[in-house]
Amino acid sequence: MEILRNNILFAALNEQQFSRVLSGSRKIQLKEGELLFQQQQQASFFYFLQIGSIKLFRLSVDGAEKVIEIIAPGQTFAEAVMFMSGHAYPVNAQALSHSELIQVDMNVFRKILAESPQTCLNILGKMSQKLHGMVQEIEQLTLQNAKMRLIQFLLRMIPPESEVPYSIRWNTPKTVLASRLSIRPETFSRVLQQLSQEGMIKVDKKSITILDIHGLKTY
């Protein structure tokens, strides 16, 4: 479980605190399509994803699904519930593929924070950085058109200093990705086709090869 050390949430802990977190953690596995937790379910744990993909979504009164976030390996999720009144999950979590996670006891983590104001400040600083990124994403979803959103999504998946051609592969269905970007599935496919015709990318089933990073950035 030392992989947790590289995550911003756990990097702020000292060795003793980290050992206590490990004592309240365990590894779990989910099959494709299996629910991890449901909206309004009482929350006792938050999670770190090692392998796979997790969809966070809400259901409207009429049963329509809205994807809130797609969790990738190396990310934590549901940690904010520790600080919410009622401690209930605000979304549903479902595995999009075979997934392996580390389940962390919220009570153990809360006790550590209650004992150390400095640790709280360290974690607040890390979480503020994450919040800033999410605010920027909300601005993008509000102000940018479908093509811009998809281009931003692709660019975020490309590591710095990467050379072209660069291939991106995902196991997430296009309908889920479209929902995440607030784009209709047919629009998602049409934009991919447009970018392909413009020579920016090459689409092959569940993989996309980036042919012109500079061209995408000029948008």
Characterise this structure.
- By secondary structure, the chain is an alpha+beta fold.
- The chain has two domains: 2-141, Jelly Rolls; 145-217, Orthogonal Bundle (Arc Repressor Mutant, subunit A), CATH 1.10.10.
- Helices cover 39% and strands 25% of the residues.
- It has eight helices and eleven strands.
- It has helices at 8-11, 15-23, 106-115, 117-143, 146-156, 174-180, 185-197, 213-217; strands at 25-30, 35-37, 45-51, 54-59, 65-71, 76-77, 92-95, 99-105, 166-169, 201-204, 207-210.
- The strands form three sheets. It has a four-stranded antiparallel beta sheet with strand order 1-8-3-6. The protein has a four-stranded antiparallel beta sheet with strand order 2-7-4-5. Strands 9-11-10 form a three-stranded antiparallel beta sheet.
- A hairpin with a 5-residue loop joins β4 (54-59) and β5.
- The mean pLDDT is 86.
